[in-house]
From TrEMBL, chain A:
Species of origin: Consotaella salsifontis
CDD domains xrefs: Ubl_MoaD (cd00754)
InterPro entries attached to this UniProt entry: Beta-grasp_dom_sf (IPR012675), Mopterin_synth/thiamin_S_b (IPR016155), ThiS/MoaD-like (IPR003749)
SUPFAM superfamilies attached to this UniProt entry: MoaD/ThiS (SSF54285)
Protein name: Molybdopterin synthase subunit MoaD
Lineage start: Bacteria, Pseudomonadati, Pseudomonadota, Alphaproteobacteria, Hyphomicrobiales
Pfam families tied to this protein: ThiS
From TrEMBL, chain B:
Role, per record: Converts molybdopterin precursor Z into molybdopterin. This requires the incorporation of two sulfur atoms into precursor Z to generate a dithiolene group. The sulfur is provided by MoaD.
Protein name (database record): Molybdopterin synthase catalytic subunit
GO molecular function term, any single one: molybdopterin synthase activity
Highest taxon in the source lineage: Bacteria
Annotated pathway: Cofactor biosynthesis; molybdopterin biosynthesis
Length: 83, 152
């Protein structure tokens, strides 16, 4: 599965995107965020307040309770500030 | 049948006069409402705003919002252009243009579009200061989320 990161989440993780193999038991967006946080200090710094993280599954906004099975691309980003 | 809005995500400048004229061409249009958002200098401190975006989703999400506007109001044409990359103070960041036979629909649709763009289109602003340093990412405003409530 491809993960893509934007704005300060990208800065803190130190990557714009990566391919990951998810372990069994990662069902929802919330599970994914918890698993990512455990991958090291950079991830912990980016995701320490998971409630503020916005998520898109295959380029559509998603909730933390949404399932991620079958997703090709999941994006993590802070609240948007365009316009 | 609602119209198919036009969406562009681009780094180049926006020709607001040309867009306005293009939307009015059909002959049935009685009003075109445009909103243009600009980069502020923040009292001379800012050299530029850098707009990061999510290519692909940015176009799709603006398209989804614009389609909702076209289904909700009797628009004759609608165009949204959002820039990315470095934008200097005084330059435009975004243009929303809505054309309708009577002004109320165009006014309301343009405001709806801007409210939803602000909190749902995947763009993020970062400040570049005149002393050459890169400032922080701009924080989202709570008002931008509450602005959506009135359209429910």
């Amino acid at each position: 599965m491809k993960l893509v990161y934007f704005a300060w989440i990208k800065d803190r993780i130190g990557l714009a995107e990566e391919e990951v193999e998810l372990p069994a038991g990662i069902i929802t967006v919330k599970d994914l965020l918890r698993w990512l946080r455990g991958r090291g200090a950079h991830y912990e710094a980016a995701l320490q307040a998971p409630e503020v993280i916005r998520v898109a599954i295959d380029q559509e906004h998603a909730d933390h309770s949404d399932p991620i099975s079958g997703a090709r691309e999941i994006a993590l980003f802070p609240p948007m500030t365009g316009g | 049948m609602s119209i198919e809005p036009s969406v562009s995500v681009q780094s180049g400048r926006i020709d607001i006069a040309a867009v306005t004229a293009e939307l009015a061409l059909s002959g049935d249009v009685g009003g075109v409402v445009t909103f243009a958002g600009y980069c502020r200098s923040e009292d001379g401190k800012l050299a530029a705003l850098e707009l990061e975006h999510y290519p692909g989703m940015a176009e799709k999400e603006i398209g989804r919002i614009a389609k909702q506007a076209a289904e909700r109001w009797p628009l004759l044409a609608a165009k949204v252009i959002h820039r990315y990359g470095k934008i200097a103070p005084g330059e435009e960041i975004v243009l929303v243009a809505c054309a309708s036979a009577h002004r109320a629909a165009a006014f309301e649709a343009a405001e709806f579009l801007m409210d939803f763009l602000k909190s749902r289109a995947p763009f993020w602003k970062r400040e570049h200061l005149i002393d050459g340093t890169v400032g922080g990412w701009v924080e989202a405003k709570h008002e931008d989320d509450t602005a959506l409530e009135r359209w429910r």
